[in-house]
Amino acid sequence: MNFIIGAFKPACNVSVSFSDGKSRKQVALKKENGQTIMVPLFQSHENISGKISVEPVSGKKVEHNGIKVELLGQIEMYFDRSNFYDFTSLVRELDVPGEIYERKTYPFEFSTVEMPHETYNGANVRLRYVLKVTIARGYGSIVEYQDFVVRNFSPLPSINNSIKMEVGIEDCLHIEFEYNKSKYHLKDVIVGKIYFLLVRIKIKNMDLEIRRRESTGSGSNTHVETETLAKFELMDGAPVRGESIPVRLFLSPYELTPTYWNINNKFSVKYFLNLVLVDEEDRRYFKQQEITMYRLGETSS
Asked: GO cellular component terms (predicted)?
């Protein structure tokens, strides 16, 4: 039995280190097994370089048919786990076929890498960036992965109109609500007001929700997942005609991402402000408005 277990031990240890690993910002990344690890943070068009060390176990030699490192940007649909969709794929050959008797270190570099999409872990899809080291062998290759995270920043939008909408139930309720803008960065504050122009039903409370809608797939294989990320109580008790209620909702406590539009024809992520009114008979009234989220600058990441 010990022989069988030993037969499946890796022939060598492979480690990946980034050249600026000690100075580069580290962020948390949740793995598939639920564990959270700290990995380096990059932006698009940065250089990604470092060293890969291969060390044979117990001083034994490692025969191989070549060693390479790949930089991959991948999209994985959770309902189709057998397939990865690579939107970025770069390769560097590190060694020709041969034998390794002792620890050997290989430098690598990928210059000004275009990484247009952000790292994303959602309900039905994930987008990840990874360095994949492959030691090719005729009887079972050795593969090691090193994840890293990509976040891309946006400038302030040149146009950012306010939102003005009405909620009405004929002869019963008429509400106007206004938000100061329609595009928000991830650490922004939603500021607005709710105006009651006609109130003939007994409203018990009113909440403002932030909802994220993730759409994956296409056609009959489309999956839509809606998640309420925040719920903010605006009012508790019955309003009267002419009353106005201020809105001030800070976004920084919540785990938001930028809005994603049809990433590689695989998925989209949208955000909505959802106004919910509940009357004394527990009937619920909704009014939903889409907003755009973006990532602003290094300090707001």
From this structure: endosome membrane; Golgi apparatus
List residues bridging with 252 in a β-sheet: none
Q: What would you measure as the largest C-alpha separation in the chain, in angstroms?
A: 85
Q: Torsions phi, psi of 155, nearest 5?
A: -75, 165
Mean pLDDT of 80-97: 89
Q: How many residues does the chain have?
A: 301
Minimal CA–CA distance to 277: which of 184, 162, 174, 179?
174
Q: How many CB atoms lie under 10 A from the CB of residue 276?
A: 17
- pLDDT at 4 > cutoff 70: no
Distance CA 24, CA 6 (A): 38
Question: Using an 8 Å Cβ cutoff, are 152 and 44 in contact?
Answer: yes
Query: The whole model's pTM is what?
Result: 0.85
Q: Which residues contact 99 (CB under 8 A, 6 or more apart)?
A: 61, 62, 63, 64
pLDDT in tens, 181-218: 999 999 999 999 988 887 777 778 888 899 999 999 87
> Phi and psi at residue 80, in whole multiples of 5°?
-145, 60
